[in-house]
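Researcher: Please predict.
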Amino acid sequence: MYRKLTTGILLFAIGIAGAVSALLLRPAELSAAEVRVTPARRNSDGNREEELRLIAQMTAQLFAASHYRKQPLDENLSERLFDEYFDSLDPNRMFFTQKDVEKFAPFRRSLAAALRRGDTSFAFQVYDLYRERNREFRSFAEKRLKEPFDFTVDEAYVTDRRKLARPVDHAALEKLWEQRLKNDILYYRLFDRAIEEAEKEEKAKKAKNVSADDKKASEDAARREVAKKWAGKTPAEKVLKRLRDITNSLENSDRIDILGLYLNALAQVYGPHSNYLSPKLDEDFEIGMKLSLTGIGATLTSDDGYIKIVAIVPGGPAALDGRLKVEDRIIAVTQENGDTVDVIDMPVDKAVKYIRGPKDSKVTLTVLSGEKGRNAVPENITITRDTVKLVESEAKGEVRSIKRPDGKGELKVGVITLPSFYMDFDAAYRGDPNYKSCTRDVKRILEKFNKEKVDAVVMDMRRNGGGSLPEAITLSGLFIKTGPVVQIRTGDRRIQVKSDNDPEIAYAGPLVILTSKLSASAAEIFTAALRDCGRALVVGDSRTFGKGTVLDVVPLERYLKFVGRDFPAGSATYETAMFYRTAGGSVQQLGIEPDIQLPSLTEHMEVGEMFMDNHLPWDSIKPVRREIVNPGLSAYLPALKAASEKRIASDPEYQTLLRRIDLFKRYKDRKEVSLNEAKRWKEYREEKEIQEASERLYEEQAGISGKSDAAKFDPVLNEAVHIAGDLCSAEAAAAETARRK
């Protein structure tokens, strides 16, 4: 079973700038007159049913009245909600047939009108069928798994069925279930086989007195411990246990939980960052936010039934460990002193409860590597839960020395790594003059750079997922005198211009901003502001994330007073405004293109707003007047690009990275896997050998001897530093030419 992203999670990871800034902008709210409800009829559980009706009516009216999209509750929305709800319950087309969907066709154009009345009977009828289909799948599995599968047949299983047609009828559905079970069993067989092979390799090394390093020995020990916990259960038993857990969870679903799924589908029709959290999920999210700095430090979503890594929190245990990557998929979780829990098809909010835990406790994640694609064999990563070290999330600066392009002497390039736009709002509100802020930290670093007489500066924003909008404005002000930074258009289409009004400049020299597809929200505002006024050169991936909306989070209890009621009703999150560049274009969807694109692994990941369903489209408004700091900046680009390409072609470290990129590209587009065990194992062995050879070459060429050395191996940042050096030399040459004239 698959569940759409439980929303606050992604909001926290890559959209936090919107959430924070929404508190600073005029929120789009409903007035008392706009909250219209229809009294509910009572039944055997009259009070509860009335509460559900009120929640449905308020949520629907809130989205229709306040969402930036301005989508009314009409027949067009009904049709989109109809499809969205089926897809949210069964996105991989595993449980509903075409005939099932056709049976509900009379509802297709009337759902919006029903919501206005508080009628959500459609949601419960579809969910009842979904529950029944899961029971049938479990019964089918219990019967089918009594007989062995033939893994010598050359057939394939399509793992990503989101764009495919639903099975025509129940017979076609059972054929699909047959393949799904066969693939599940094969996964476990290959996993067991991979563990056995690893054990043999380890014994062979011991026999030859080949010692492993401490890190490898620790990983081997963790793998053995997890293998013990898996031992004793056949692949069929593991699959059946998971199906029993899923069925039990569905059978125990409360009506408010089911309504929450339906209203969340409604929210998703409006936009990918819009959500409804039922009271229970709302409470869990609040707890999660309070405890968000304890755990492994990773942001999760659901993808084809797998728990997928969306982002790694800077300074968290996963980031410091270094093995868990964006795009990895978690299939099982093992506690230090507990059993292994299979999390395939588990809702994100439930999986998070297994992954999260007390400080200093260990958790082992069984993952399918994103770099190895759909054909990956599971591997174990053990991480010690810890409090995210905030110091690791702060701005950091270092000075690097490189040779001048002409080879005569050296240049000093200051590098500032900024993981987020952080600000201690509570301390600032209290009037604490020393409140924490990324602008203050970066200013101190720049002052240090000025004392060391750096020739250029690189701002590394590749993993910056956003943060405080005021900080994006004040940080921009460190590099410009005064002027507009961002435009904001609200739902009523009024435009506000946010400007830096502080004439002080902390650094006036050559500036390069390094971005990736993970650079989002406030990071995009900062990058666009400095690029559009000719203050900085942007290098990196072909675009940034494209998160250009402001979010508001509204507790529904706020509106219950208008109807004289008070009960837990959950909360709604929705887009209320859109960011625009000073040059007029939106940050939304398309992100920011670089002046110079650099090859990277993130470039080939399906990351960004454009990959989210129902995202708001890019558009533009009128540009605002701004000072162009360096009108001639674009004139340097042809020479800078040529020099960069030449350097990359001859740089052994970058060539190693390019080989890893080619390996990733080889796996990432696979949508199906072989169900022939010999073929699948052969592919795994070949890919494992290629991966290990790549890793060895990677370590040899970079001189890596441990985790700390691996972190220093960063050809993309190295190239950005050299581009900054080239820019410095180009500007100096231009200044000299102008002086002579």
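Model: DSSP finds 25 helices and 21 strands in the chain.
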